[in-house]
Design brief:
Residues 7-75 form the HTH gntR-type domain. This is HTH gntR-type domain-containing protein. By secondary structure, the chain is mainly alpha-helical. It has a single domain (9-72), classed as Winged helix-like DNA-binding domain superfamily/Winged helix DNA-binding domain (Arc Repressor Mutant, subunit A, Orthogonal Bundle), CATH 1.10.10.10. Helix content is 48%, strand content 11%. The protein has helices at 9-23, 35-42, 46-58; strands spanning 62-65, 69-72. Strands 1-2 form a two-stranded antiparallel sheet. Helix 1 (9-23) crosses helix 3 (46-58) and helix 2 crosses helix 3 (46-58). The termini are far apart.
């Protein structure tokens, strides 16, 4: 996915992760890549990747397990 640099980055990253969850790339109970890996993949800062994942947590699409990372929530 190519980031549109004229628009805020975190909603674009969140939308792509959401698309992957809805499309089955990331399955319920599966751990998401870490924010460092996501930042590298999308060529954004780690804080941008963290904000994107946090927004998905607010939506209930992912949950956090302390010390282990973010996981896809059951549908």
């Amino acid at each position: 996915m190519e980031i549109n640099r004229a628009e805020p980055h975190w909603p674009q990253v969140a939308a792509e992760i959401r698309r992957r969850i809805e499309g089955g790339t990331y399955r319920p109970g599966e751990r998401l890549p870490g924010t460092v890996a996501l930042a590298a993949e999308f060529d954004v800062s780690q804080s941008t990747a963290s904000r994107a994942v946090a927004s998905l947590r607010t939506e209930g699409l992912v949950y956090v397990v302390s010390g282990r990372g973010y996981f896809v929530a059951d549908a």
